[in-house]
Amino acid sequence: MTDRDTITALLDRADAARRSGDDQEALSACLEASRQARELFAPDLEARAMLGVAQIRALGDELRPGRDAFDEAIARAVEGGVPVIEAEAWFGLASTFFDHGRSKDGHDALLEAMALCREISEASPDDRTAKARLARAIRLYGEHIGVLGSESDARQALELARIMYADLGEAAIAQSITADIAALREYSR
User: Fold this and answer.
1) Claim to verify: residue 12 and residue 86 sit in the same structural domain
2) Taking the model in full, what pTM does it have?
3) Is pLDDT at 180 greater than 60 in this prediction?
4) Which pLDDT belongs to residue 87?
5) Based on the domain organization, do 178 and 131 belong to the same domain?
6) Same domain, 68 and 149
7) Which residues contact residue 63 at a Cβ distance below 8 angstroms, ignoring those fewer than 6 apart?
């Protein structure tokens, strides 16, 4: 029988491997952590492990392995009551769909991420990380709908994200969004 500390150590090993660029080692550690977490019935840890698996598998050329792993991470995060991991999995799923030309599916996943980020931010109004996650979601949404051609909606979303980042003291990010807003007409269809 394994314990939570053993699984956490595997997840830490996976994080270190990802930082060093060893995706195979990271994948191996995440898969083992997922197996042990399932055995222990620790859906919160299994969600974190499956998020790692999904992020690595999404790097491949095929849609299905990444999508399936993100779906599993979402299910385990819901079961384990870990909305932050669920939101990250929705972000990853949106990116995976966008990377494979599935704009509608990506948009839907991004809306799920935004809704969760908003809930997390409202539940923890003093949490800078939660606010930054919500700003990131709104920025991605603005960029996506700008590419789809809704310039006025994109401008509103990007301006909101710019204000949120400025309020967080992230001047460089806010400035880059100002540049995005200025270029919006060019990349809107």
Assistant:
1) yes
2) 0.85
3) yes
4) 94
5) yes
6) no
7) 96, 97, 100, 102
Provide mean pLDDT across the span 103-118.
Answer: 91
* Mean pLDDT within 98-114: 90
Helix/strand/coil percent split, the chain, to 5 = 85, 0, 15
Task: Let me know: does 121 contact 127? Beta carbons within 8 Å.
Answer: yes
Cα–Cα distances in angstroms (integers) from residue 185 to residues 135, 150, 174, 189, in the given order: 22, 10, 19, 8
Residue found under tokens 């809930």: 119
Q: Identify the CATH number of the domain in which residue 93 sits.
A: 1.25.40.10
183 phi and psi angles, rounded to 5 deg: -90, 0
- Are residues 90 and 141 both part of a single domain? no
Same domain, 6 and 97: yes
> Cβ–Cβ contacts within 10 Å for residue 66, how many?
24
> What distance in Å separates the CA atoms of residue 151 and residue 77, rounded to the nearest whole number?
34
Residues 100 and 158 in one domain: no
Token pair in block for residue 178: 């100002």
Is 15 inside any structural domain? yes
pLDDT on residue 187: 67
Extract the tokens encoding 131: 């606010």
φ and ψ of 51, to 5 deg: -65, -45
Give the range of the structural domain holding residue 186, as residue numbers without chain letter.
124-189
